[in-house]
Amino acid sequence: MAKEPVRVLVTGAAGQIGYALVPMIARGVMLGADQPVILHMLDIPPAAEALNGVKMELVDAAFPLLKGVVATTDAVEACTGVNVAVMVGGFPRKEGMERKDVMSKNVSIYKAQASALEKHAAANCKVLVVANPANTNALILKEFAPSIPDKNISCLTRLDHNRALGQISERLNVQVSDVKNVIIWGNHSSSQYPDVNHATVKTPAGEKPVRELVANDEWLNGEFITTVQQRGAAIIKARKLSSALSAASSACDHIRDWVLGTPEGTWVSMGVYSDGSYNVPAGLIYSFPVTCKNGEWCIVQGLPIDEFSRKKMDATAEELSEEKALAYSCLS
Ligand code: NAD
Ligand code: LMR
Fold first, then answer.
1. Is the CB of 244 within 6 Å of ligand 1?
2. Ligand 1 centroid – CA 31 distance (Å)
3. Buried b / exposed e across 195-210, counting CB within 10 Å, b at 16+?
4. DSSP state of 5
5. Is 12 near ligand 1, meaning CB less than 6 Å away?
6. What are the tens digits of pLDDT across the range 90-148?
7. Kind and range of the H or E element at 209?
8. pTM of full prediction above 0.80
9. Which residues hold substrate (predicted)?
């Protein structure tokens, strides 16, 4: 029997990530090839005509899984009944800016949209915040939508996770799908800590640690980390626009694994509400290694943390605490 359609909200749907993301969702990349979807697309009035153009293209593409499209500038209409909400709407940073430079514009959007989601989304709606500063926008959304469970609000660091997999795969000249269990700790910013201490590569002789195969700690502790931390800026410099197809694809990976589960023995990185695991202050949205099962994520526990990692994990937590204070000062 055909499944009931799932309603997926994409805010900022007329923007460049939106344009890459909505066809992926309509093709089943996010929720599976047998899962019908109804797309809810929200943007602001100046983008209404462009949004309508995206709707026309979705109709023209005749996606078999797409059972309906709501294209609106009304947040209540957009949020009504949604099961998954991908929050992309906001202002992207430009060359020379840090992600927190877009803070004041974006946190006020997330405060307003929190109430629309809280009041009108389906019970148990899963929320993914993509717009920057992603962790802090997610925290603001969480704080202003107190009836949405903490477990249902997350932010995107899967793009950083995928970037780390990509760097290792290029360095070792192996398939990216054979590399697993990198970790992004902390903020989706240049203070994030991409950690390969537990990462492995599938080889004909079994799984081998990345550190053993790369055999160059100087690169792993230096250039590898800065390349992943600075990749967003490198893309802005090259494209004069921030990453879009990789962000859209990673947003699909994030929701797919959250809803359908992570493969056995594999974890992924998600920005989630800290419960104090790994001595990360509770009350921040911080990226952790997680496994997912039955629609729930769970932080991977018990990984040994060396002194080098500890310092980097603490530094990115410190930045998130500062961002939190700054966000509140922007809202007051
Ligand atoms: P964009 O400017 O092309 O699109 C943003 C869209 O949001 C625009 O259509 C704009 O009209 C809309 N918008 C603005 N305010 C809105 C509101 N209140 N409600 C609904 N829509 C609104 O930007 P983009 O390149 O698509 O990037 C979107 C966001 O995603 C930016 O904040 C960017 O920095 C962030 N981003 C995050 C990641 C990540 O990994 N977390 C990766 C790439 C980009
Ligand atoms: C990215 O990581 O590509 C995005 O967050 C865009 C940015 O501002 O870096």
1. yes
2. 22
3. bbbbbbbeeeeeeeeb
4. P
5. yes
6. 887 777 877 677 888 888 899 999 999 999 999 999 999 999 999 999 999 999 999 99
7. strand 206-209
8. yes
9. 93, 99, 132, 163
